[in-house]
Amino acid sequence: MATIVFDLDGTLADTSQDLLAAANHCFGTIGAGAVLTLADAATALRGGRAMLRLGMERLGHARGEDEIDRLYPLLLEAYAGAISVHTRLFPGAMQAVEMLRSQGHTVAICTNKPEGLARQLLTDLGIMGDFPALVGADTLTVRKPDPEPLREAVRRAGGDPRIACLVGDSDTDRNTARAAGVPSVLVTFGPSGEDMAALAPEALIGHFDELPSAVAGFWRDADLPALDGARGRA
Ligand SMILES: O=C(O)COP(=O)(O)O
Ligand SMILES: [Mg+2]
Question: Under CATH, which architecture does the 3-14+87-233 domain have?
Fold first, then answer.
């Protein structure tokens, strides 16, 4: 059986509103108003630095990167203080996890959120105990799209990194899976949904209830390179 690894932001949960609020708190400390709006959800799901960069651009800050470095810890602090106010799991996420586990698969999380914040969020959402392994941005010295955090998440869950897939919502997730030599599933229900097909993942899902059959296809279809590689070396 395989290890199904999930990205967190934009995949398991819509974290965009709480991320945007934390970024706007930072802009407030430099005298700006709410620089980002709900229309910036896609940027929010790319993480704190991406939000600060967009805000700095809008504010016309010349020394943007220095300011981003200075504001980033403030953003993390603000976010930690209100991490689960608006954040919700996407429909069917945990039912899909339950189904996959009942089929004998193992699950894990690989996120570019700092590990502590990811743990805090999963605990608030009441699902920390459902994931035997979690690798965050600072768990190792490298983060996605380096393949190592994905492989490490699989190993920590007790699985074989060659028999795994990554469920995500971004080019980063697609590239991470590709670098690890395993299939990816990209979700199309987020704010960047229409861009996902162009990334040519092995599967696209518009709802979590499509995930178990998408995953089953990976290890049923003998033509998949990742499968051949995994079997060839096993
Ligand atoms: O916080 C980020 O940079 C993105 O987090 P994710 O990897 O869970 O989508
Ligand atoms: Mg994501």
Answer: 3-Layer(aba) Sandwich (3.40)
d(CA 119, CA 116): 5
Evaluate whether 185 touches 166 at the Cβ level (below 8 Å).
yes
Measure 46 CA to ligand 1 centroid, in angstroms: 6
Domain ranges in the chain?
3-14+87-233, 16-81
Select from 125, 126, 108, 115 the least CA-distant residue to 164. Answer: 108
ipTM, interface predicted TM-score of the complex? 0.93
Ligand 1 mutation pick, 18, 111, 117, max ligand atoms within 8 A of CB: 111
- pTM value is 0.93
H helical segments located in the chain: 16-29, 41-44, 48-59, 64-81, 93-102, 115-124, 148-156, 171-180, 211-218, 225-233
The residue to mutate among 5, 6, 7, having the most atoms of ligand 1 within 8 angstroms of its beta carbon, is: 7
Read off the pLDDT of residues 33-42 as tens digits, 9 standing for 90 and up: 899 999 999 9
How many residues in the chain? 234
d(CA 115, CA 194): 29
Q: How far apart are CA 18 and CA 85, in angstroms?
A: 7
Does residue 202 contact residue 218 with C-beta atoms inside 8 Å?
A: yes
CB 226 within 8 A of CB 154: no
pLDDT digits (tens, 9 = 90+) for 84-108: 999 999 999 999 999 999 999 999 9
